[in-house]
What does this fold into?
Amino acid sequence: MKEYNIAVVGATGLVGREMLKILSERNFPIADLKVFASSRSEGKIIEFEDRKLTVEVVKEGCFEGIDIALFSAGSDISKEVAPLVKKAGGIVIDNSNAFRMDKNVPLIVPEVNGEALNDHQQIIANPNCSTIQMVMLLKPLADSYGLKRIVINTYQAVSGAGKKAVDELIEQTKAYLNKEEIKKENFNHQIAFNAIPQIDTFLDNDYTKEEMKMVNECKKIMADEDLAVTATCVRIPVIFGHGESLNIELNSTYNINDIKNIFANTKNVELIDNPAQEKYPLQIDTENNDNILVGRIRRDYSKENTINLWLTANNLRKGAALNAVQIAEYLAEHDML
Ligand SMILES: NC(=O)c1ccc[n+]([C@@H]2O[C@H](COP(=O)([O-])OP(=O)(O)OC[C@H]3O[C@@H](n4cnc5c(N)ncnc54)[C@H](OP(=O)(O)O)[C@@H]3O)[C@@H](O)[C@H]2O)c1
It folds into this structure.
């Protein structure tokens, strides 16, 4: 079997560590593996199976011979470093929002639009975590009924904002319970025992960047510029797993049981929908589950051809690291490396 030379940039972060774990779990065929982070981590050792990897900082020439570089070090680093990988002949799979809306960069969820990888020009973008889990459910609905309008409300975990944000929730929770001063560094407002209706910064239209990412990325992945999409994104004091409430207007009539059956038969989607037994997807169920969990599927009686549903998924795995590794697998399986 062919083996590939892999680089992970941002290897010490939440997503980077998860990428290494997933490469190992899924036995991705690796020849050489290089790990990069900031100068704060230079020289640290990361264990990967029986290898001991030394964390490096990015330098001119460091990507020579690399087939795939998985990036999760933020958009500034992606913009700066991606050209070095390209120049060395490798392919970048980028988790940041640096290139997602670039028309020369495919924005990929393999189960939804893997075929768009045919047009890649060495940079491939991984969508936003909340977008990935949503389009996994929109795709089978689009195929069966067509989509008209999506109203999104998210309930997003703090791990979506990186490891410092997770630490802040834990520290604030301890401080609150011990009646000590609450310190805020990563979030503008207290996140412990609170919900913050702001993720990322505000734009001129009074939506946040996260909300507009969901709108624009959804249209690009679904290849449907006419799809009406609107979003409100909220950070909640949960460590792992994003939840979303979706109101979806279809292009045709439907039978609610058919929709449940469609999800029950969609790969990497799990239907958990039993109101009588109070069973529905929870954020805590996503910790050791790579599927998109969907439930609370019901008719919207206020609007024709419209449904409501609730979904949860692991933001670090399918929402980031797993999707990136699946893109690499797709490239390898289709002899595109
Ligand atoms: N968390 C999620 O759910 C999620 C989902 C989708 C996409 N993403 C995206 O993935 C990226 C990383 O997120 P994260 O949650 O993993 O953040 P994180 O936990 O804060 O990790 C950031 C990583 O970037 C590294 N880094 C910082 N400056 C660097 C530099 N100058 N050169 C090389 N590496 C550098 C850090 O290294 P040090 O340890 O040395 O500081 C660390 O490895 C972001 O673009 C984020 O938007 C995150």
